[in-house]
Structures are given as structure tokens and as C-alpha cells.
Design brief:
The complex is a heterodimer.
Chain A (H helix, E strand, L loop, with lengths): L1 H8 L2 H15 L9 E2 L18 H14 L3 E2 L1
Antiparallel strand pairs in A: 1-2
Chain B lengths: L1 E8 L19 E4 L4 E7 L8 H15 L5 E2 L5 E3 H10 L1 H11 L2 E10 L22 H12 L7 H14 L6 E6 L6 E8 L3 H14 L3 E9 L10
Antiparallel strand pairs in B: 1-3, 1-4, 1-5, 2-3, 6-8, 6-9, 7-8
Classes of the chains: A mainly alpha, B alpha+beta.
């Protein structure tokens, strides 16, 4: 059973996608008042179970904004 | 005109980004901001959806710069007037230069640690069914369910401190800096290391040793990345 669990996290491409999303959407320099994220097609992020490793909360927040604000989020 | 900003660097050769497509099917260019150079795309339409294509385009442009020098990456979605970008760099020039010096010659390596419940030491409590109160966010509840499905234990504060201390000590000789965080699902400890480029191979070898020493943990890694988590201007 343990080996099966590890396999979930060995799908490198999905992990790379997750890590990319994790970096690009949540960290890095920010110019106050200038960030604009227009979310479209974000369901593509849900590529597999690796999403549980880091970004579901981030994505949920984005989706909530998308539903509530007509797909625009400003920090 | 509005620009989409990817990263800041010093003394960047335009050839570094010459053939790398940017977000929204634009081509990035260099924008002189005084003490630093910004890599930007000029936007006719200041609307850049957070699609898979654009997220990867952002990352690819930053990665292309990483091939030459270590930049300070911007977060996705940084759309501003060119004049505002220049003012931002001028206003924060000393702190940005200091940050750039800190990350210079380094890459970011990510390590994520999942505690396995098949380890007797961290066995999951019998009452832990992954169900959290309704006041928890939907993402947190989802992750809690997945954590139980996949046999990951809760990482409470003492355990997080122990693991953070252990992993930081393991890599203390080859990492210049590190940032530790526990994911809100309480199932994952994330450590981002700032590693000199020449140490990446040794870092990976050390990681393999760490995996052998701690079979009770699932230790995942990725990198090298641009130093996103070390590009933070704290007020």
C-alpha cells in the first residue's frame, strides 16, 4: 500500500505543473495595487491528485473570486 | 502603455529572451528601469487570463532569464503602466538590489514532506476521518479528505518544528537560505531552499540520503526554480 501512495507523487509532470502554479500565482514581487489576475480556464489546473500537495486553497480562492466578482481579482 | 512584468535583473543580454514567447502571445522585451532591467511584454489589451498557457509562458520567460542570471521574479498578473514600474524600481532600489545580491548565483529548490501514517511513530488517530468543521474552507476540507485517503498524517506544530529543524540541519551546509511553511491542510511541510548553482547536484544527492534516513517520510522535491519565494519585499 505504501508504494501505491508514493506513486501518486511521482508523476513529475503534474508535480511540475503544481509547483509552477504554486510559484507563479502565490509568490514573487508584487507592486502594491497593481496585480490583476483574470481567471479563465482555471479548471485545467485540476490535473490530478498532486493538486492536494499545495494549491487547492489558492485555486478555491480564485474560483470564489471568479464566481463572485466576474473573474477579476485585485490585491 | 501597460506592460506585463516578468522579472527584474541586472545587466541582462536581450538575447536571453529573444525567442521566448511571453503571455498573451506577446514577445518579451527589456525595459530599462534605472539600476535594474525589467523583462516585460507590452500589452495592447491589458487582459491576461490565468490560463495554463499564460502561467507557463510567465514561467518560461523567467526560466530563460535564469539560464543567464538569477532574477527577481514577479508574481503572475503584474500588469502596470511602464512609468509605474519604473517608479516602483526607483522607490525600492536599495531593497531590490539587496534582494538581488542575496539570490545572485542561486536557484530555488523545493522540498515537500509528507508524513506517512504507515509509520508507527506518526500513526493517524483512530478518530481522524478527515472531516473538518463546516467553518473550514472548502479547499481545506477537500485536502483533509484526500490526506486520509492517501494515508498522510497530520503535521501539528511540534512535528512541523521538528521536521523543519531536521531538514534545515540536513542542508545547512549547502543552502544559503530557506523558507518553511506548513500547508493549511496540515499534511504537508514545504521548505524552499536557496541553493548556489554549483551545489545543486550535491543538494540532490543529500536529498536522496535524507530519503534513505527517513523512510517514515515521503520527501518530494522539484527544481531548480527562479527564487520566487525569496523575492519578497517586506514592508
Amino acid at each position: 500500500m505504501a508504494e501505491e501512495r508514493i506513486d501518486i507523487f511521482d508523476e513529475e509532470s503534474e508535480l511540475t505543473l503544481l509547483e509552477t502554479v504554486d510559484h507563479v500565482l502565490t509568490s514573487g514581487l508584487v507592486i502594491a495595487g497593481e496585480i490583476t489576475i483574470s481567471v479563465a480556464d482555471i479548471d485545467l489546473v485540476f490535473v490530478g491528485l498532486n493538486v492536494l500537495l499545495g494549491s487547492v486553497d489558492t485555486i478555491d480562492q480564485i474560483l470564489a473570486k471568479r464566481q463572485g466578482l466576474g473573474i477579476e481579482n485585485s490585491n | 502603455m501597460k506592460v506585463y512584468a516578468y522579472c527584474l535583473a541586472a545587466d541582462l543580454d536581450p538575447a536571453a529572451i529573444a525567442s521566448v514567447p511571453g503571455v498573451a502571445q506577446t514577445m518579451p522585451v527589456l525595459n530599462n528601469c534605472g539600476v535594474l532591467t525589467a523583462v516585460v511584454s507590452e500589452l495592447d489589451n491589458p487582459y491576461v487570463p490565468a490560463s495554463r498557457e499564460n502561467i507557463f509562458a510567465h514561467e518560461h520567460v523567467v526560466s530563460a532569464v535564469m539560464q543567464k542570471v538569477t532574477p527577481l521574479p514577479f508574481r503572475f498578473g503584474m500588469i502596470t503602466l511602464g512609468a509605474n514600474l519604473k517608479r516602483y524600481v526607483e522607490t525600492n532600489s536599495q531593497r531590490l538590489l539587496s534582494l538581488l545580491e542575496h539570490v545572485s548565483g542561486c536557484v530555488q529548490m523545493n522540498v515537500k514532506i509528507l508524513v506517512r501514517t504507515d509509520s508507527s511513530r506518526f500513526a493517524r488517530p483512530s478518530h481522524d476521518n478527515g472531516v473538518l468543521p463546516e467553518e473550514s474552507g472548502p479547499g481545506t476540507r477537500f485536502l483533509a479528505r484526500k490526506r486520509v485517503e492517501h494515508g498522510a498524517a497530520v503535521i501539528n506544530s511540534p512535528l512541523a518544528s521538528e521536521l523543519a529543524g531536521w531538514i534545515s540541519k540536513e542542508f545547512s551546509t549547502m543552502a544559503k537560505d530557506s523558507v518553511v511553511s506548513t500547508h493549511s491542510s496540515n499534511s504537508l511541510l514545504a521548505v524552499r531552499f536557496l541553493v548556489p548553482r554549483g551545489q545543486v547536484e550535491a543538494f540532490s544527492a543529500m536529498l536522496e540520503l535524507a530519503r534513505q534516513r527517513r523512510p517514515d517520510l515521503s520527501i518530494m522535491s522539484s527544481g531548480p526554480w527562479a527564487p520566487y519565494h525569496f523575492a519578497q519585499l517586506h514592508s
